Amino acid sequence: MKSIVISGPPAVGKTTVAKGLAEEFQLQYLSGGDVLKEMAKEQGFDSDSDDWWDTEEGMKFLSQREQNSEFDKKLDKKLILLFNEGGMVITSYTLPWLIKDGIRIWLEGSHESSSKRMQSRDNMSPSDAYEITKKRFDKNKALYKKLYDFDFGDDKSVFDLIIDTDNLSAQQVIDVAKETVRKLL
Fold this sequence. Notes:
With 185 residues, the protein is an alpha/beta fold. It has a single domain (4-184), classed as P-loop containing nucleotide triphosphate hydrolases (Rossmann fold). It is 57% helix and 12% strand. It is built from eight helices and five strands; from the N terminus they run E-H-E-H-H-H-E-H-E-H-H-E-H. The chain has helices spanning 14-25, 32-42, 56-67, 70-85, 95-98, 111-122, 126-148, 170-184, and strands at 4-7, 28-31, 88-91, 103-108, 161-164. A five-stranded parallel β-sheet has the order 2-3-1-4-5, with helices on both faces. The longest helix is centred in the C-terminal third of the chain and has 23 residues, at 126-148. The chain is globular. The chain starts with a strand and ends with a helix.
């Protein structure tokens, strides 16, 4: 069975949709971010919390990644191998541009919408959520441009489906994704 990759900006709902698809189609779910957090742990970071990426330490690791692309290259090689085995739903910023087969879904959402999601999910102030989502998006965009020369967030030509999440509930986004996956599997 083909694998599915879910991508999109920070806090757009990738994990929720990926888990919904994994359950519906009896596929294995894997978070590319969680694998990267394990790599951070190997470097001495305490990356156990769900909102770790949004902390000062998470941002420090992101800065390290900007200086040393080995973390991302190692992660992406691992994710490509797992994706190509089939039967997976993986959340990843980079994978859609690095694979040749499978189903690729982009979750589109405004920065304001992502900030609101992060604010309620991680119990933070609106201004903190806005700054963190913007910083993460901008830094990742620059990192992937430098590393792979694609325009994260702008070049959506590789995707089979783009879902604008701004005015949809999580369940509505999952339902749209399920419908498309049924046609493409």
